[in-house]
Amino acid sequence: MQCSSSAANAFNLFCTVFSRKFMRVFSAAADPHATPPPAASSRTHPAEINEENLKQHIYMLAGEIGERNIKRPEGLINAAHYISRQWQAMGYPIHTQGYYAHDIPCANLEITQRGIGNPDRVIVVAAHYDTIGGCPGANDNGSGLAVMIEMARVVRALRLTSTVRFVALVNEEPPFFGTEHMGSWIYAHHASKRGDDIQLAVILDTLGYYNHQPGSQLYPPLFGMAYPDKGDFVAFVSNLRSSRKASRFASAFGQAKHLPYQKVIAPQIIPGMNWNAQTPFSLHGYRAVMVTDTGPYRYPFYHSAKDTPEKLDYSHLALITQGLVDAVATLANE
Fold first, then answer.
1. Mean pLDDT computed over 266-270
2. CA–CA distance from 236 to each of 134, 138, 262 (Å)?
């Protein structure tokens, strides 16, 4: 996705105005001493996931940077620069999609691993980098971001038939949730206008908390009888329209038996079904699936000041990341 001059200007303003005001700003410039990106190989099986990378990303995002939203724009800027710096060190060019929300310049960030056989066919992997007010956002959504950054590192060395895009989304939490100022709405809207052939949007949101105790997993009304009462699984959540592709993606994840998983297919009226970026993609005609630990139905520190890095299960996160890379590679090579 090439950003327009106005989008680039919005992001540049976002970076320059606030970087002058606040001390802690990460440089998004390419590091001339960085290790060159790996040459694309003929491998289709991904390399190992580095658990320490996941921990480093989350401790930086939630421990060092902390709350990040338009009321704390220094947090948004620092997070955007951190994500950009990680991806640039891998050799990815960064594309920005800038826009204004409540007169504040904001931006989605995107990188692309271009397919070698059918590059117009696209799989999107997305995670939001903002947090709700008062929340450092380790699980919501430092975990999703960390998984996406690490996935991008591993996918960089693969030769895949279809194109894979990784997108860091802004403004997914209130007060923007459910509005056209959501980063996912902006992204899906412009993708639809261009006619992008997005086969599936994979939304990563709250992935880091697991509990093996009976009764640790809650559900919306009428769901509890059909699913486990232990919060030890990862959920693949989709609406009815997306169910076929979402189910195939979840099955690809499950083939390697990385972790227990559950497919959850339900209409939008069920609480939680329209809570995140999958809804704007669906409303623009794309199939989407949310991959999650189920957030408030399991995580006792959801949307609170106690959502901190030491609460998360990093060995589970590494297994999830490996499984998601396997699933993306499978779908991209179909």
1. 66
2. 28, 20, 6
